[in-house]
Structure formats: C-alpha cells, structure tokens
Amino acid sequence: ATGATFRMIPHVFGNPLLSSLITGFVAAVAAYGAFITPKIFGFTYSTFGNIYPAFAVLLAFNIVTVAVCYWFYVRKSANMNV
C-alpha cells in the first residue's frame, strides 16, 4: 500500500481506534501482496510456460479495484466523498 492509502484511512473511517485497526490490516495485506505476486508469476510460468496469464489476472484485479474506488469515492453521488 502506498502512503496515500494510509493517509486516506482516517478520513474514511473517522474513528481513531477503527482507523488504526484498518491501517494494520492494510499493512498486513500489502506485505502479503509482495509475497503472493511472485508466487503467481511462478505458478503461471510452470503451468503455462509463460507469465501472460498472471499479467491478465493482475490486470483484471487492478481494473476491478479502480472501478470500486471510482464507485465509492469519485462519482458525485458517492456516499464516502473524501
């Protein structure tokens, strides 16, 4: 996770205790992401002989997360404007 994510969390949740809990969870997920991404590349390379399926899965995941962020934060009628 980037520094922007950690700065955004208190604005989204408001409650200091809940914000600190969510920040810890996000840090744990970010650490796991650095571990799992090379594993995904290795699995697709050993299974398919190339890493293109891993790129496709990660690209699809990123497109979904951008769409979710847009839906909840960017559009005018979003409930959680930050």
Give structural attributes.
single chain, 82 residues, mainly alpha
Radius of gyration based on Cα positions: 16 Å
Distance between the amino and carboxyl termini:
18 Å
Estimate nothing, just give the exact number of structural domains.
Answer: 1
- Describe the main β-sheet briefly: none
What structural category characterises the helix and strand content?
mainly alpha
Strand content: under 5%
Query: Percentage of helical residues?
Result: over 70%
State the low-pLDDT regions, or none: none
* Average pLDDT number: 88
Q: How many β-strands, per DSSP?
A: 0
Instruction: Spell the H/E element sequence.
Output: HHH
Shape: flat
Structure overview:
- By secondary structure, this protein is mainly α.
- The protein has one domain.
- Helices cover 82% and strands 0% of the residues.
- It is built from three helices and no strands.
- Helix 2 runs antiparallel to helix 3.
- The longest helix is centred in the middle third of the chain and has 33 residues.
- It is flat and about 50 Å long.
- The model has no long low-confidence stretch (mean pLDDT 88).
Q: What layout of secondary structure does this protein have?
A:
Elements: H1 3-13, H2 16-48, H3 52-74
What would you say about this model in short?
The protein is mostly helical and about 80 residues long. The chain is about 80% helix and about 0% strand. The longest helix has about 35 residues, at about 15-50.
